[in-house]
Amino acid sequence: MKIIILVQGCEDYPYKAIQDAQMNTWDNVQVDNVDTYFYMGNDKHEEETELVVQTIVSPFKEKSVSKHKKIFVPCSENYNMMHWRYKLALDYIWNKDWDFIFRTNTSSYVDKQKLFNFANTMLTEKCYCGIDGGGFASGCGVLISRDVAKIFKDQFDSHPTDSEDCLMGTYATKNGIEITKGAKRFDYYFADHSNGLPNIYHYRCKSDTTDRTKDIQAFYDIHKTK
Description:
Blueprint: E1 3-8, H1 15-24, E2 34-41, E3 50-56, E4 66-73, H2 82-93, E5 100-105, E6 108-110, H3 112-119, E7 128-129, E8 141-145, H4 146-155, H5 164-174, E9 186-187, E10 202-204, H6 213-223
Parallel strand pairs: 1-2, 1-5, 2-4, 9-10
Antiparallel strand pairs: 3-4, 5-8, 6-10, 7-8
Helix pairs in contact: 1-6, 2-4
């Protein structure tokens, strides 16, 4: 069983710094059969799709050094085109060897080994697993099987929409797919962790302020516990 983590990233301030912090922490830990791609729009060269591989040396000396993969898809960076960037990222990785996609964003810390262990308990068909946001799985972290990914890849269109995760829920429902139960997520800045963090695969690190450096600090704080 193999997983690809697709992280919706951005090269603009402050998101590039947050993305780099993800690479320095959780994505700098190599886990067999789990691969990560950071995907983002390419406003300057919309006719091109390219893969950039960079090596990040983690400040955590005991952690391994990973090569991090960025995909620049031919799409605007506008917020209302998030779904189309996702569809193009799926196009790019479609012929690679994988069973599940975990779609997340720059607000997340992912424990890749625990994600692999969790996915190994899921059915490999009709898996659409995330925190229920009211009829759709929250786009902060959604585990989907290949058949569900094919629905999004084949049926999404380029019409702008302000809610990517609601759109995923709409298409899943149209195709008879319900939210798969069992998703785990801990909201770092909105839940009590005075007695320690839960030992799960997904931590949402977006703070309740506009100060995105707090997200970065959360990544490093969590990483120290691993």
